[in-house]
Write a structure and sequence with these properties.
By secondary structure, this protein is of the alpha/beta class. The protein is built from 10 helices and 8 strands. InterPro entries: ICL/PEPM, Pyrv/PenolPyrv_kinase-like_dom, Pyrv_kinase-like_dom_sf.
Length: 259
C-alpha cells in the first residue's frame, strides 16, 4: 500500500497536458469502490453528488463533519489517491480554511478542489482574498508533510451563460490562474467553459494544468487532451445517470414489466 505522500506524488504526476487524468466523480465508499474496479487511476468526489446522496443541497449545506466522515469511509475503502471537493473551504477566513484542509488531509485526501465563488453564490472572492485562502491551504499541507494537489476552481465561466464566454472572461481567468499559482495552487479548474477555442487558448497560456468538467459523453477526454487539457472530470453527471437508472429499474420492478 502506498503512503499518503506517495499517493500525492502519483496524483500530481497524473496531470499531463495533452494526456488528461480522467476522473469519474463519486459520492460515497460504494461508488468509489465501483470506480476503482473499472481501472480508474484516482478517485474524486463531487460536492453536488455527495450532498444529494445525503439528502442535502449543494453549497456547504452538508455539515462538514459529515463530509469528513464520508471522506474517511472512501479513503479507507480504496487503494487509489483520493481528492475531495471542499467547495469554498467551509469557511471564509484564512484560519478556517487552513484548519479544514488539515482535517481533510488527516482523513486521507491527497487533493482538494477549492472554489472562488462567494458562499451565497453571488459573485467571486476578490483575487487577493482568494489567494490568501489558497496560501492557507498550502500552509496546512506543508505542515502535514503532504504535497497536496490544490485544484483552484474559478467560477468565472460558470457564473456566465456560455453565450457570454469570450476573450474578456478568458483574460480574467488567466489573471486568476497566475495569481493562484503564485499562492500555491497546483491546477486550475474552469467548470462551465465549453468553447473549445477558449479551452485551447487557456491551456496554452495558463502555467497551471487545466481541469475541464463535462456533463455528457462529449467531448471525449481524447478530444479535450488534443486541446491541451490535463484533467477531465464529470461533476454530478455520474450521480445523475446512476439515479436515473435506479428510477427506471424501480419503475420496471414495481410495474411488473421487468424481464
Amino acid at each position: 500500500m502506498n503512503t499518503l505522500q506517495e499517493k500525492a506524488a502519483i496524483f500530481h504526476q497524473a496531470h499531463v497536458k495533452g494526456n488528461p487524468l480522467v476522473l469519474v466523480n463519486v459520492w460515497d465508499a460504494g461508488s468509489a469502490q465501483a470506480l476503482q474496479s473499472t481501472g480508474a487511476t484516482a478517485i474524486a468526489t463531487g460536492s453536488w453528488s455527495v450532498a444529494a446522496a445525503h439528502g442535502e443541497p449543494d453549497g456547504e449545506a452538508m455539515p462538514f463533519q459529515l463530509v469528513l466522515a464520508n471522506l474517511a469511509r472512501i479513503t479507507k475503502s480504496v487503494e487509489l489517491p483520493v481528492t475531495l471537493d471542499i467547495e469554498g473551504g467551509y469557511g471564509r477566513s484564512v484560519s478556517a480554511v487552513k484548519e479544514n484542509v488539515s482535517h481533510v488531509i488527516h482523513h486521507g485526501a491527497v487533493g482538494i478542489n477549492i472554489e472562488d465563488q462567494l458562499p451565497d453564490g453571488a459573485g467571486l472572492y476578490e483575487v487577493e482574498e482568494q489567494c490568501l485562502r489558497l496560501s492557507a491551504a498550502r500552509e496546512a499541507a506543508e505542515q502535514a508533510g503532504i504535497p497536496l494537489f490544490i485544484n483552484a476552481r474559478t467560477d468565472i465561466f460558470l457564473q456566465n451563460v456560455p453565450e457570454r464566454h469570450n476573450h474578456a472572461l478568458l483574460e480574467e481567468a488567466l489573471i486568476r490562474s497566475k495569481a493562484y499559482a503564485e499562492a500555491g495552487a497546483s491546477g486550475l479548474f474552469v467548470p462551465g467553459l465549453q468553447n473549445q477555442q477558449l479551452i485551447q487558448e487557456l491551456c496554452e497560456r495558463s502555467s497551471l494544468p487545466v481541469n475541464v468538467m463535462v456533463t455528457s459523453y462529449e467531448p471525449s477526454p481524447k478530444q479535450l487532451g488534443e486541446l491541451g487539457v490535463a484533467r477531465v472530470s464529470y461533476g454530478p453527471y455520474p450521480y445523475l445517470q446512476a439515479m436515473e437508472h435506479l428510477k427506471e429499474l424501480g419503475q420496471s420492478i414495481l410495474s411488473g414489466t421487468m424481464l
